[in-house]
Design goal:
The complex is a heterodimer. In chain A, 30% of the residues lie in helices and 17% in strands. By secondary structure, chain A is α/β, with parallel strands linked by helices. Chain A has 2 domains: 256 residues, 2-Layer Sandwich (Aconitase, domain 3); 147 residues, Aconitase, domain 3. Chain A has a 5-stranded parallel beta sheet, with helices on both faces. In chain A, strands 16-15-14-17-18 form a 5-stranded parallel beta sheet, covered by helices on one side. Chain B is α/β, with parallel strands linked by helices. Chain B has a single domain, classed as Aconitase, domain 4. Helix content of chain B is 33%, strand content 19%. In chain B, strands 4-3-2-1-5-6-7 form a 7-stranded mixed beta sheet. Chain B is globular, with a radius of gyration of 15 Å. The chains are: A alpha/beta, B alpha/beta. At the A-B interface, helix 2, helix 3 and helix 5 of A face helix 5, helix 7 and helix 8 of B. The complex binds iron/sulfur cluster. Iron/sulfur cluster (SF4) binds next to helix 4 of chain A.
Amino acid sequence: MGKTFSEKILGKKAGKEVVPGEIVELEPDVAMSHDNTAAISKTFYKIGVDRVYDPDKHVIILDHCTPAANAKFAQNHKDIRKFVEKQKIKNFYDVNVGICHQVMHEKGHVWPGALILGSDSHTTSYGAFGAFSAGIGRSEMAVIMAMGRIWLRVPETIKICVDGKFPEGISSKDLMLKIAGDILADGALYKAIEFCGPTINRMSVASRFVLSNMAVEVGAKAGYMIPNKETLEYMKARVRKPFEVVQSDPDANYEAIYEYDVTNLEPMIAKPHTVDNVVPVSEVKGTPIQQIFFGSCTNARAEDFEIVTNVLRGKKVHPNVRMLVFPASQEIFLEVLKRGWIVDLVEAGAVIMNPGCGPCMGNHEGVPADGEVVIATSNRNFRGRLGNKESEVYLVSPRTAAVSALTGKIEDFRYLKL
Amino acid sequence: MKIKGRVWKYGDDINTDVIFPGKYTYTVTDPEEMAKIALEDLDPEFAGNVQKGDIIISGKNFGCGSSREQAASCLVYAGVGAVIAKSFARIFFRNCINFGLPALTSAEAVDAIKNGEIIEIDTDEGKITSKAVSFDFPPLPEEVVGIFKAGGLIPYTKRKLGLL
Ligand code: SF4
């Protein structure tokens, strides 16, 4: 019987044939950590090792609370800089570069066929580039620092095939929310997802990323897809090593296969307080909002800025709404600056913030007040996620966020005359 | 290993943000303080009243969301002896093993056992016993039992590297 991409990548690393359910000890090609590196480094030293096993394997990116919100966060960053210097870790990106999952591929640390582990749940994101990538815990990252290896369970695989042409204005975020609403937050628990089909093959790098990024929101360990032409070209310009695309065999074994046709997909929204509490936007349209969080590793790339700017150009953000804008990285920030979109957004009344996670996990830069409603282009709306358990967070696409900014209410863009 | 304690029962999809809020992940690091905010956004009664050995029982997908291992370790520091759920989110399950916290899967036990009951778990026998009924749970995969028996991933790694 044929093998899935997971069985192939993990098997190659293990140096033997592997089957789902098997536990193997493996050496990842790349190990990513972020602001949590301070805590990881303390655990690392506790193991009793003095030098990192392979400093070149590690990529450390400061993004979760950047610039530091208070003295504790500042100390955290300081400890990390010291650790990086002592351990001679050269792949270090300080507070100016951007969100870890975006920076990883921009800077060439992701390639097809690679095994990448990160101490962050959205490490699934690099599946969009044909890598097997999964999140791990902090202690596990400390162990990789100490001995280069960690245990992994070979997952079963679920295939999600997508066909059809997106209706005007509908995006991969709407698709991913639809999938989360259907298969629920545990729909792919401990499994790898393989996204495939003509629609996936046609998507831009940024749109594909949304699906792999949010694969973890349905419980998945990895969110793989075969890199398409645009993705391979993007990689070629950034990856400085030869790589080979790994594909599942046609007769590989899938635990489940789901088929989607996006031809009639509507704008979708996840209501508080779970990502699978999904309905068409039309069902909650008219709900007043006080803040918009346009940012995060899910939806803050140039194509998202283009959509949002085209809606807001020459218009005004509703006076009852604070629209906070966080480009996913410095590179994206520069691009949108050069295109003049930042001017348009500022003129519309948006607040432009620095690249980074912003309020995504409730640390700073836009924590909502009690009773406030926020619509966010990010990936999680758990109670308290933005730092206040008395607020409500809805997850939406960039276009839905932008049109809702104009009226101060959740809007279905199909029915709004702009 | 035997664990006996009072049951704290919760629903499905309990996520890491309500177990250990994100806003604390870089600032609260002392075990005692971590214990005090365990389940803060889910059950404000929990941290002040939990006793050593108490057991959390929950529905499906317990621990979904972030990779933060404080969601597992804060429960250990609060004295929780085990978590029983219908299913566990992947990274949370790993974090439990790595911290030596038994994470047991038994849908029947979850449905049958009530909040506040005193129950007993025998991890070697694979049994959960409440009043009159007992439930079996599947053993942990052999490969990870070693980590568990060593008391967690860090002592296990130390031993492996000959540092213990
Ligand atoms: S933007 Fe949000 S989801 Fe993405 S890495 Fe940062 S905190 Fe995590």
